[in-house]
Design brief:
By secondary structure, the chain is α+β, with helices and mostly antiparallel strands. The protein is built from four helices and six strands, in the order αββαββααββ. A hairpin with a 4-residue loop joins strand 1 (52-61) and strand 2 (66-75).
């Protein structure tokens, strides 16, 4: 025969177990209801995207060394820096396509950032640093294009092909943001002497150096 105190202890344990089970079931039901409520309150519409606009690309052609103007429709953000990055991303996507007239691997992901700063006078000391939070003053702008190291490492080597890439970037920036009159380049956020052994990345390029050359070559 089971002693009375053990029966009492067993009863207490049984009641405690039942209470704990009921509490767990209640908490589980509450969590399920909160989950359903959260799903019901979630937005059902797609997030807004930038409207599509016509952008102008200066696309290089290796067969004759020309820069040809192409119009492309793509979403363009209102922020000038993001806008610059979007048009350059489209340009590099064109170069990464199988039928590219200027084949360069990497595509849009090769552009990390584009910073827009007040353009210094030619011959004046360049800014010590680049900050995306600097205020842009009205007037000519300097675009600082930060490319990935993978893009530089995978770029075909050669003075003409590298120069065409650099000039097409400069011309595309100016065509879509006319205030951009000067362009400098960084690679992974650091200065670099050349793109792939030839094109000088230590200098400041002028947008005027990248005028389209349609008709310049038969």
């Amino acid at each position: 025969m089971i002693p009375r105190h053990q029966q009492l202890l067993f009863g207490i344990l049984l009641v405690t177990s039942l209470l704990m089970g009921a509490t767990l079931l209640h908490l589980r039901e509450r969590a399920h209801q909160r989950l359903i409520a959260g799903q019901d309150s979630a937005p059902t519409s797609a997030p807004e995207v930038a409207p599509a606009e016509e952008a102008t690309l200066l696309v290089a052609n290796d067969s004759d060394g020309s820069l040809l103007t192409q119009a492309r429709s793509l979403p363009l953000p209102s922020d000038p820096g993001a806008r610059a990055r979007a048009v350059l991303g489209k340009l590099l996507d064109v170069y990464a396509a199988p039928d590219a007239t200027h084949p360069v691997p990497g595509g849009a992901a090769s552009v990390l950032q584009v910073f827009l700063l007040p353009a210094p006078e030619i011959g004046a000391a360049k800014p010590a640093g680049v900050s995306s939070s600097e205020q842009i003053e009205p007037g000519p702008q300097l675009a600082v294009v930060n490319l990935t190291g993978a893009f530089a490492a995978g770029h075909p080597s050669g003075i003409e092909t590298e120069t065409l890439t650099v000039l097409s970037i400069c011309g595309t920036l100016h065509a879509n943001l006319p205030r951009v009159t000067q362009v400098r380049f960084l690679v992974d956020g650091q200065p670099r002497t050349t793109l792939a052994g030839h094109a000088d990345l230590t200098r400041t390029y002028l947008a005027a150096d990248a005028l389209p050359t349609e008709g310049a070559h038969p």
